[in-house]
Write a structure and sequence with these properties.
The complex is a heterodimer of chains A (440) and B (449). Chain A is of the alpha+beta class and 440 residues long. In chain A, 35% of the residues lie in helices and 17% in strands. Chain A has a domain of 180 residues: Thiolase/Chalcone synthase (Peroxisomal Thiolase, Chain A, domain 1, 3-Layer(aba) Sandwich). Chain A contains 14 helices and twelve strands. In chain A, the strands form two sheets. In chain A, strands 1, 2, 3, 4, 5, 8, 9, 10, 11 and 12 form a ten-stranded mixed beta sheet that branches. In chain A, strand 3, helix 2 and strand 4 form a beta-alpha-beta unit. The relative contact order of chain A is 0.20. Chain B is an alpha/beta fold and 449 residues long. Chain B folds into two domains: 164 residues, Rossmann fold; 229 residues, NAD(P)-binding Rossmann-like Domain (Rossmann fold, 3-Layer(aba) Sandwich). In chain B, helix 7 packs across helix 15 and helix 10 runs parallel beside helix 12. The longest helix of chain B is centred in the C-terminal third of the chain and has 24 residues. The radius of gyration of chain B is 22 Å and the shape is globular. Classes of the chains: A alpha+beta (440), B alpha/beta (449). Chains A and B meet through helix 1 of A and helix 8 and strand 9 of B.
Chain lengths: 440, 449
């Protein structure tokens, strides 16, 4: 099943100039009744202000939302029209579950590399607090029938088919359509399969909060985040949490597993509202405007796994995508300075790392000669990740790219050596997207 | 926007009522709008005999600004004077100025609302004979006194030439123009020393800051936001700076003025370097406005260390550190304008920390001036009086009304725009002869010296 990767074709570079996001907020708190469009527009406005892009016509803006109302069919374009960018900036919506933001970045950087555009913004937004409410299929069918009926009698007949129970709204769910299992329940199975301990998961969560809090305190986010609606920092962050406090929480996923149930509200990401945006361009475009270049967006890979039939865990696609991406770029895990692995759950990070360390898994499932290897944990999510910051689905990619770009830029400036970050984002549907960001 | 009381006494009923009751009747001040005439009517230029040549030179310059210039009071006809310029630059004895000042006095009843009196004189300097020094120094008190006599939004200010500055140098003319214009609406009773200028005299008066890069700290709201807007209006590319927590309104200001937002605490050790870096991306730093400031009012007897220290750190120490870093970097032609305060001159009760910091600003401005001058720059301060902002809206009613009505000759608070106009003027190329000065924007408040 292994094929020799083709070398990366030589194209021009796509560089990362900088990013902006609004502080992420737990669902139902600061951004109640704030729409996806409001939040993404705010993220764009902060980015425009940071780099003086008022009235600028960019090549394009791409992004999306996972929980999106049908009225927002042109969510990103509408956000651009509400921003200070030139109204002649094209835009389109992308949707790939939690990988939406990263997939949008892959799309626009490819266009930059091919010379189709010079500049772009990629990002995403999600709100659980303002999620669309769906009516039941029976109610929807009755309303559509009534709408199609030509006579009053026909309309009444169609509406008469509605039963009281049809009126209950269908609450938004992140359940998998094919398995009817929630993402947490899926991951609970994977966690148990890999024997990931509760202690390890709690430690990942604890580190995430500590690292994010330290980054905030050190001013790392001063040029990555613009306050919004009175919120100045991510409000899910718990700098005062401890391993003891985390250990006291009851498992919320995998109840059927009994003693093997290890996933708690503390080591799983909460539902979150937020938006992020990242500015990319060709090197020439950035240099013409004397804009700072943080890093280059080197290459990316997406993967998918067969989770429907239980062969593989729902969130394990990045485990397969990373070796393919590294091979194509002639890199090994040791060549990476920062691992930005999205913490959908603490155990997602840990099962991915366990898979790479497992010789048999790597041989049979990934088609490698042996284990991909073990990473240095001190390089993992050094400035926190989704467990602490929260995870507004489509906004996570932008958060990670901007953080990674700033990390490699600082490291390269400090050491005088090139620095690389590996970004990995798992997504519903057994999807995963990964990318390499490198200092310039 | 004038305050409610000012609007009331300028309306039908309010006008009548306030007249009968003898209440203060503040005027609606005229503010700058592009392409409007410089003054509200013709401008009279009068002088003593010895200063006639200087008066001629100024009259000539005024004519190039499309001002209707007259040389004798009788020239007015029925018109009310938009401005009267008294030139006493070459007067040598107190007796010699009498005719000119009395001529000025004769015009004051015919000075239009929002009219301007500008006294152009020379500063008394070391080596002057006692008589000459007296002649020159006399104009200072005279100007302030005239200011108090004027009504209906009219002001009196002085251009005081120093170091042999030519009366028609760019700086002398620029200062004269500022005082004659609506940009100095809330500047009253001020005598500004103006030294020799090397600026070219062909100034674009509508966009004097075209091509310049300006950094404004504390720009997310209030006076700082007004400064950013005004500098942008005058043509500058503006970098707005404020603490990260104020980022949302900061971004809105940046996008409004087509500038760049930098979320930065000015007390950070590397703030100066970061400011330079942000300006470098736009072509290099030309203008820095130290506007960031905080209040932590408390009687000294009850003052906690944190309240004292925070005010000193933000209002004063940050400016010192940033200036040091800019000087060390050798930034050429830099215009620094720092926000002082009339409280820094007079010392408001319960404001010992604030008064120390703002008085300190005045001190470092004088000391910084010769240092930046070596690199072709200037350092000046602007001291606002009672300005209508969110901050002053929180002042208790009684104190606020005293600050607004009783203390200033103009009987009202100023607007953030008024402070911004003074800063834009001091930042402009034509103001290169003004260095180490404190310009009050206080409506001639009686506070302080």
């Amino acid at each position: 099943m292994s094929t020799t990767p083709s070398p990366v074709p030589s194209t021009r570079e796509a560089v990362i100039i900088g990013g902006n996001r609004i502080p992420f907020s737990r669902a139902g708190k600061k951004y109640v009744r704030t729409s996806n469009q409001d939040m993404f527009t705010a993220a764009l406005e902060g980015l425009v202000a940071r780099f003086g892009l008022q009235g600028e016509r960019l090549g394009e803006v791409a992004g999306g939302a996972v929980l999106k109302h049908s009225k927002n069919f042109n969510l990103i374009r509408e956000s651009v029209l509400g921003s200070s960018l030139a109204p002649t900036t094209p835009a389109y919506d992308v949707q790939q579950a939690c990988a939406t933001g990263l997939e949008a970045a892959i799309a626009v950087t490819n266009k930059i590399k091919l010379g189709q555009i010079e500049s772009a913004i990629a990002g995403g937004t999600d709100t659980v607090s303002d999620a669309p409410i769906v009516v039941s299929d029976r109610l929807r069918a009755a309303l559509l029938d009534a709408n199609h009926a030509k006579t009053t009698g026909g309309k009444l007949k169609a509406l008469a088919a509605i039963r009281p129970k049809d009126l209950a709204p269908v609450s938004p769910s992140t359940g998998e359509p094919r398995t009817h299992l929630s993402m947490g329940e899926h991951q609970a199975i994977t966690t148990a399969k890999w024997g990931i301990t509760r202690e390890d998961q709690d430690e990942v969560a604890y580190n995430s909060h500590q690292n994010l809090a330290r980054a905030w305190e050190s001013g790392f986010f001063d040029d990555l985040v613009t306050p919004y609606k009175g919120l100045t920092r991510d409000d899910n962050m718990r700098p005062d949490t401890s391993l003891e406090k985390l250990a006291k929480l009851k498992p919320v996923f995998g109840a059927k597993l009994g003693e093997q149930a290890t996933m708690t509200a503390g080591n799983s990401t909460p539902l979150t509202d937020g938006a992020s945006a990242v500015l990319f361009s060709s090197r020439a475009w950035a240099e013409e405007r004397d804009l700072p270049i943080l890093a280059k967006f080197v290459d990316a890979e997406t993967a998918a796994v067969d989770f429907v039939h239980g062969h593989e865990g729902l969130l394990m696609a990045p485990a397969a995508a990373v070796p393919r991406l590294l091979a194509r770029n002639d890199l090994r895990l040791e060549d990476i300075d920062f691992f930005e692995i999205h913490e959908a759950f603490a155990s997602t990070v840990l099962t991915t790392l366990a898979a790479w360390e497992d010789e048999e898994y790597c041989r049979t499932e990934l088609g490698l000669d042996g284990a991909l290897g073990k990473i240095d944990r001190s390089k993992l999510n050094v400035n926190g990740s989704s467990l602490a910051a929260g995870h507004p689905f489509a906004a996570t990619g932008g958060r990670i790219i901007a953080t990674a770009a700033k990390l490699v830029a600082a490291k390269a400036a400090e050491t005088g050596q090139p620095a690389r970050a590996l970004i990995s984002v798992c997504a519903a549907g057994g999807l995963g997207a990964v990318a390499i960001v490198e200092s310039v | 926007m004038a305050d409610n009381y000012t609007r009331f006494v300028n309306g039908g009923l309010g006008k009548k009522l306030s007249k009968q009751l003898g209440l203060p009747r503040p005027a609606i001040l005229r503010r700058y709008v592009p392409d409007a005439p410089l003054t509200v009517g013709p401008v009279l230029v009068v002088s003593d005999d010895a200063s006639a040549a200087d008066a001629d030179a100024l009259a000539k310059a005024l004519m190039t600004w499309d001002v209707d210039v007259r040389r004798t009071p009788e020239d007015a006809g029925d018109a009310r004077w938009g401005g009267v310029v008294l030139v006493g630059t070459a007067a040598e004895t107190p007796e010699a100025v009498s005719e000119a000042v009395l001529a000025l006095g004769g015009t004051l009843r015919r000075l239009a609302g929002n009219g301007r009196v500008v006294v152009v004189s020379r500063a008394a300097e070391a080596g002057d004979s006692p008589t000459l020094a007296a002649t020159r120094a006399g104009f200072e008190g005279f100007t302030r006194s005239v200011g108090k006599e004027l009504r209906d939004g009219a002001t009196a200010n002085g251009v005081q030439l120093t170091g042999g500055a030519a009366v028609d140098s760019a700086s002398a003319l620029g200062t004269l123009r500022f005082f004659l214009s609506a940009k100095s609406a809330y500047v009253d009773g001020q005598v500004l020393p103006v030294g020799p200028s090397e600026a070219p005299s062909d100034v674009d008066w509508e966009r004097p800051l075209a091509g310049k890069v300006a950094v404004v700290t504390g720009a997310a709201r209030g006076i700082g936001a007004a400064i950013a807007r005004t500098l942008a209006r005058d043509g500058a590319k503006v970098v707005v700076v404020d603490v990260p927590a104020a980022g949302e309104s900061l971004a809105a200001v940046a996008n409004e003025v087509k500038g760049t937002a930098v979320q930065l605490d000015v007390t950070a050790a590397d703030a100066g370097t970061k400011i330079l870096e942000a300006a470098r991306h736009l072509g290099g730093l030309d203008i820095l406005v130290h506007n960031a400031g905080i209040l932590r009012d408390k009687l000294l007897a009850n003052m906690k260390p944190a309240q004292w220290d925070a005010v000193i750190a933000v209002n004063l120490a940050s400016q010192l550190r940033i200036n040091e870093q800019l000087l060390a970097a050798g930034v050429e032609g830099l215009r620094i304008v720092s926000l002082a305060s009339t409280s820094g001159i007079a010392g408001g009760k319960g404001q010992t920390n604030y008064a120390y910091s703002k008085s300190g600003v005045i001190g470092h401005t004088a000391a910084t001036a010769p240092l930046v001058a070596e690199l072709g720059g200037t350092a000046n301060a602007v001291a606002p009086g009672f300005i209508e902002t969110e901050m002053t809206r929180s002042i208790p009613f009684g104190t606020r009304e005293v600050g607004r009505r009783v203390l200033p000759s103009l009987q009202q608070g100023g607007l953030p725009l008024d402070v911004a106009e003074a800063i834009a003027f001091l930042s402009s190329p034509a103001a290169d002869g003004v260095n180490g000065q404190v310009l009050r924007v206080c409506g001639q408040s009686m506070l302080g010296k």
